[in-house]
Write a structure and sequence with these properties.
124 residues
């Protein structure tokens, strides 16, 4: 995905799976602490449902919506870590494995690092 997009501008946008079926609406965007680039989006999958984490790479922004290149069932079955807090390196690895993605250098666990900072969150 484009790295020059303001991650806050993704919040509220619709997300669709590879077949064009609506998944839901983006609630939060998580940044990689090492690069500062948007890495994961939490997508609200339904009115009474939960947020599912989707990878922003290899997703694309198409006509103002996020197109996630995975099937809706796989996205809905993603591990549920809740939203509004950091993703631990272990949680991030679980998500990479769930989607069958290669683990990039920035996603490998390193001691004493918080990964998956929420976009716009203040540092403590």
């Amino acid at each position: 995905m484009q790295t020059d997009i303001d991650p806050r501008s993704l919040i509220g946008r619709k997300a669709f799976d590879r077949a064009g079926t609506k998944i839901g609406t983006i609630d939060e965007v998580y940044l990689d602490d090492a690069t500062g680039f948007p890495e994961w989006a939490a997508v609200r999958t339904g009115l009474f449902s939960r947020d599912a984490f989707v990878p922003l790479e290899p997703s694309e922004l198409v006509d103002g919506a996020l197109r996630v290149p995975f099937e809706r069932a796989l996205i809905k079955d993603a591990p549920d870590f809740g939203v509004g807090r950091h993703l631990s390196p272990e949680q991030e690895l679980q998500l990479y494995h769930h989607y069958g993605l290669d683990v990039g250098a920035s996603a490998r666990p390193t001691p004493d690092r918080d990964f998956g900072k929420v976009a716009g969150a203040e540092d403590a």
